[in-house]
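[SOLVED] Need 3D model of a two-part complex

Original post:
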Amino acid sequence: MITSTLRRVLLVAKHASFQSRCCVASSRVQYSTVYDSNEKTFDKILIANRGEIACRVMKTCKKMGIKTVAVHSDVDASAVHVKMADEAVCVGPAPTNKSYLNMDAIMDAIRKTGSQAVHPGYGFLSENKEFAKRLAAEDVVFIGPDTHAIHAMGDKIESKLLAKAANVNVIPGFDGVVENVEDAVKIAGDIGYPVMIKASAGGGGKGMRIAWNDDETREGFRLSSQEAASSFGDDRLLIEKFHGNALWLNERECSIQRRNQKVVEEAPSTFLDPETRRAMGEQAVQLAKAVQYSSAGTVEFLVDSNKNFYFLEMNTRLQVEHPITECITGLDLVQQMIRVAKGFPLLHKQEDIPINGWAIESRVYAEDPYKSFGLPSIGRLSQYQEPINLPKVRVDSGIQEGSDISIYYDPMISKLVTYGATRAEALQRMEAALDNYVIRGVTHNIPLLREIITHPRFISGDITTNFLPEEYPEGFKGHQLTSEGRRELVATAAALYVSAQLRSQRFLGNLRVSTTPQEQRQWELCVELEKGSHTVAVSRSGSTFTVEVDGVKVEVSGEWNLASALLPVTINRTPRVLQCLSRDAGGDITLQYLGTQFKVRVLSQLVSTLSAHMPEKVPEDTSSILRSPMPGSVVAVSVKPGDVVAEGQEICVIEAMKMQNSLIAAKAAKVKSVHCKAGETVGEGDLLVQLE
Amino acid sequence: MAAFAVARSSCGLLSGLKAYFKTFRQVKHGVASAAQSQLQQQSRRWYSVSHLSVQERIDRKRNAALIGGGQKRIDAQHKRGKLTARERVELLLDKDSFVECDMFVEHRCSDFGMEEDHNKVRLHHRGPYDFTVFGGSLSGAHAQKICKIMDQAMMVGAPVIGLNDSGGARIQEGVESLAGYADIFLRNVMASGVVPQISLIMGPCAGGAVYSPALTDFTFMVKDTSYLFITGPDVVKSVTNEDVTQEELGGAKTHTAVSGVAHRAFENDIDALLNLRNFFNFLPLSNQDPAPVTECHDPSDRLVPGLDTIVPFETTKAYDMLDIIQGIADEREFFEIMPNYAKNIVVGFARMNGRTVGIVGNQPKVASGCLDINSSVKGARFVRFCDAFNIPILTFVDVPGFLPGTSQEYGGIIRHGAKLLFAFAEATVPKITIITRKAYGGAYDVMSSKHLRGDVNYAWPSAEVAVMGAKGAVQIIFRGKSNQAEQEAEYVEKFANPFPAAVRGFVDDIIVPSTTRKRICRDLEVLASKKQTNPWKKHANIPL
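Solution:
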């Protein structure tokens, strides 16, 4: 359990602003984002990645007049990055180790298309020295640091030793490879709990686990090494003292389920002062120079409350969150990477790197934030609309309406970035952008994002590792309505219901019978919301509804376009954008209000009265059945029918989006039946095991 | 329909004489007034001489009828999770639009038949078998009332909705109640194709009574509280020695998923009635009326980008036809008929630019979307309903063929498949067909092809109109030859695409999938005035 007992709690260390410092480590010249078409660069670049980052890189390539080649797995054949590229080559079937990690196929694609350089994006082969080596052997430029730097920094164990040598502050921990489970327990005991078990070759939160006791260490060791082997082909682990990583907003359970993947980032930090920033930047540059680094990279530090900082790791690639750096510096980092790779010097001096305004990035994921702050969800984006019509909003995505979010890849939908002169302005824009973002067909984390960015503690800038578990100790439950918010929501739902009812009486065309029904003036309704029930009276004048909710008047006006996903309304003179997700004949309306989806039931008084007589449907008893909490594939089943399991005992392991999740028994019981076997693919809600 | 309106709405009457006069004042439909004024005069006369006996009797009767079987029976009905007939009617109809008739008919049995005035525009008729009165078994008088209403409905062209909650024939009445059934059956048959008929089963419905819903166009059920069977579990046990519960034998699940008797099931009485209201708005009033057009907020030229990527590259991979249907329909609204039965074909109603359309689509997600006995029958009945009631038919085709095998052949797939072929061929309503992927063999012909008088037939670029898939074709044509893979590639190149059909004019155009909605809306506009007639005949002889 992570509680508030972390005494040496540590804050934001990951600052995109350092990225640029690292970039500039080896060159200078002046500031600009001009795309100089006369500057001779590559003719054709292959992007060895998919999704959002592949599209991002291609955008810059297009601006620079460079032809692009996409690689894709067969399920990605109609993906956005494939359509965007000038050429596309299929490199294998869906599993990443057979396609996006398949170096042979990618090398073939490079030869076939005559690509001169490769941009690896992040993840996949971006920090794979073997790949960089093979490219070098064929005279293809790797857009990123050279093999030496990748090797040195990509390995967490080695990088730590190197940083120590370069006089960079490091955190205590075990500097060698952990041999086996018992070794792990012993080392953990020596360092003192909590500890973090990390894959030496890891990144992106994969192969990473936090352990608070010996049992967790054993479990963590096993799962991490399996994950590390499947994601990076290298199962070496290291263990160090766990402090939590700043702005890794999901800790605790989410660090087990979502594993230390970031949700909201911003630049600049609310915590650093200019001196610390400079000192940190200088150490970063020191380290970069020590390994003769020559591309974009990120050095992560851990900062404690006394503004001491310690080297954590260096990512030798373009970071996921690079857009916020671009927003506040005005640089196009991909362009700089390509230029540096071609051998041009950087166009900027350190003094030229400004901090202009404030940028915030929310990572929009296809996941259910109500389950451990985010369990992956899959599906087809039946409707999808990015809020790019709003000012100062940038959306980096690699999907479109109709795209599938599959179990094979990262469930990120997009990176939503807003910026403004001040943090408050950027946050305000983020609120609007989240409200106007239409995503249907998959469960997404917008409810959580919207709650975080409007949370008083977040607004004040007091952001730590434990933000989520501290603020939502019982787990995330969505937006908690105030009584005023409740009235607004109820009133809007009632007005929407009445508009729909009125419209259903308007028939066009030549009906035999006269079509002028007398419009009902006053509607007496009963609105149910979260187990509460409200008496509501609605009257209409034009497009404005006066709704009396339990005697309090609320005025709601809007266009009442019943086909639109967005529902812009003015409630008591405050403009708001709600979304109507569903509306059915039984009066059930699902509205997205302040980011969270609420199920509202609007009933006429008559229906409401008669509802009392309807039989209650008995829900299934869930303590004796185990259902898959997410779609994925079964890695292992640890029980068979007839076994007796203890409460909390592992029953099976499901892998989804490259993450292994151990499912445990909710009570001590005998296993009645097992409905899955290792290797099978299961959907969310599928019955796995039944207990007696 | 006030000619036989005696009372108006159920509440308000309880307060006696005053309300009674008020009621009359509110009725304002032509024919009625004469009869009413007469009645009014009469009652006034009685009133003026303070001789209230007739008036008192009227009131007393009316009150008795309103209470139905009495408060106790009402409570018992509620306890079972069901509503009384009167409450059901109130829910189903617009406020103040219900007009009851024959409240005074006696039993021979004193139930009531009802006449309804929906939306004040839409008229429909039909008396619920009032379960709180007499356990809902059918009396001669009851049947007579139902017949009266149905005759009227047919005469004026108003849909009929039956709310069934009946125990079966009234044993005490013997042959008279049997005659009553037959009278209703006859009306059901006569009204078939004249006015839409919908049955909502809201309680047990056993014995002969089940044939009335079976004859109507749509049968809906309420989960857990409604049953339909010829003979109940007791009789089944004594005859075949099978142990079966009511629910297993004839519950909503059985009939919507296994037997195909019912078209859809709803959670409870309220859910069912509210959904029925919604469903009703898709239907025209009669075969003389056009399909209704409602106000539509969804732009008719809306592009649906998701459709461009929905058909997977591998021809063996499935996708969900419902995604296409919801993508193109107004506001993504699709009222599916028989969603749990023969799922390899999808049928239901939607609107295009406000206009009701019937949609038929093969479902690649289930059994590759092949046509088998059940799906052919399901599709055929739906197509015939649309044709009878002037509802244009949209057909989405992705069909690998008819399902092979002994069970299908022995079951008569030939004559059942012919039903769907027959239904599409005889239909004269506007017919628009979109081939999304496979259109193989005889199944291609069946699915509203150009050859069966399809008005507009489109193909998506992913369409393959051919006699069969590449693999099967090559195996037959080049039996025993070695270079089959090569031949297969050649076959794919030559036949597995929309061109062979397009060059012959069997498809009118190859369209970009995302423009499908726009194209259909425009075509429907043009086809709205389509007139086509089949040669005169007494009736066709569909292979039943």
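Edit: Chain B touches chain A through 57 residues (CB under 8 Å).
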